[in-house]
Amino acid sequence: MSELPLGTVKGPGESAHEYAFITPDNRASKVGEFVYYPVSVEGSEELILGKITGKAIVRTLPDSFLADPMIAPAEVASLIGFDAERPELYEVTVAIAGYFDPRLSGFVNPRLMPDPGTRVYLASDALLTRVLSPKEQGQVGAAHLGSLLTRSPDAVPIVLDVKNLVSTHLAILASTGSGKSYTAGVLIEELLKPHNRAAVLVIDPHGEYHTFREFESHPAFQQGGYRPRVRIIPHDQVRVRMSSLSEADIKYLLPNLSEKMNAFLNKAFSRLKANRGDSHLWGLPDLLRTLDAMRADKADDDPSSDASTIEGLRWRLEDVFGRTKLFHDKDHNPLPELFAPGQVTVIQLNEISEREQQVIVGTLLRRINNARMDTKNGKTHLHDENHVPYPVFILLEEAHRYAPAGATVVSTGILKQILAEGRKFGVGVGLITQRPGKLDSDVLSQCMTQFIMRIVNPIDQQTIASSVEGAGRDLLDELPALTKGQVVVAGVAVNTPVLCQVRPRLTTHGGETIDAPREWLDYFEPQAANAREQDGAVLRTPRPTERFKGYHI
Fold first, then answer.
1. Is 239 in contact with 338 (CB distance < 8 Å)?
2. Residue 328 is assigned to a structural domain of this protein
3. Distances in Å between the alpha carbon of 191 and those of 229, 341, 485?
4. Average pLDDT of 113-122?
5. What's the whole-model pTM score?
6. Residues 6+ apart with CB under 8 A from 275
7. How confident is the model at residue 70 (pLDDT cuts 50, 70, 90)?
8. What SS3 class is residue 538?
9. Is 204 part of a structural domain of the chain?
10. What is the SS3 assignment for 551?
11. Cα angle vertex 367, ends 376, 291, to 5°?
């Protein structure tokens, strides 16, 4: 072992998996850094890796040496003959990860605490590159997120396991401006590279992901005959087929129905489904005709309140569903067009109300989940529009809209079902939110890989601590200090939790903050002022005698 020791073990830490060592080196013993000590396990030497979780100074210069900021403490020490070359000593706490076992592709904790006096070494870049990431760059199923934050840029790449990442779901949690959408863009870039060629769909409520079009022409995403496909579906091209709506969806879009209206809608919906069957199309006219038949029956029996209640329900249905292109009798966005290997589809939901967004997402999740189950169970055929013979991944921006804490919306139930069962059928989900405290805790706890960025709100921090198993207390303490692009990665997609600096995007980021001062100044530029003056000019139609300078036509 050629490395110089960083420090010497003092003894056990506060918990059963921690130890403390003493070191004079303040720079190398950073919180989040990795160190190791050697130990014999079954006759062979293993390196027991651990992560520094805390540090406290145990010896330093006397306070009197530090009293005058104009005089260096070393000069004061030299005047009285005090050797101040390295006067500081630090007690460093380390959480043990274990030794890396290639057969298991993970860490094994041998439960052998280091003896006092054992030397502790700083882990080399080569060692960390080999053991922190489950994949190597460019491998099938590898996603290069960035590099280890405590080392030089690109010295220790952090490469995620895509199989675990998408099959057991992920969550990106960060305050506004911390880089959550940027990080999501990096992940989707990796999914669309030639060694992955994933089928990805992004629910984009703000129109931030339109820059994915650059995938199609960027050389980093091309190999042989492969070139990724990008489909952007603007809000005015989103279609939801009426027959794909559940009764709960319809009632959700018709809030504050009376008890009688609810009862009549339930009867009409049941009668319609019985007449048409679950596999047949139906639209708003069919539902209205069913209500008309019920109203005629009621008019014959009792021409009073029941008939007027049905008429009121009919009017509300026409008002919500009859005046929009979003809900259609026959048209919808076919699943094979939304999902295909080597394709990212972005559904833009800006300018669509939040309730309608929730219905769209709930309906889409239900459709793809049923399609994957039917395909896996052999209930579909090649030309069936519900035949999806490959795994898919869905990324939800503003995820707290679709599974809010303390409330149930129409998308919550199916989202929970997919998070619990989607792994069996190849439906992966990624959740992005700036307010973890507003996201349903059961939903968050089902995401087995977490990307946690700068978060200062105590409620959000507590939500993460209680819902995310992979986030240790030491990492949560780091969250307020993280800067833009720095992320804690924990869970099944990495071998152990790490602090990562996200790599630069290959394509343009579409979620940049508006530069308000620059746009205010641009408003007063002469060219902009002239353009406004021309746009605001009033056109006057000349009289016939004015058209050709006095000549009558």
1. no
2. no
3. 12, 10, 19
4. 95
5. 0.87
6. 290
7. confident
8. coil
9. yes
10. strand
11. 135
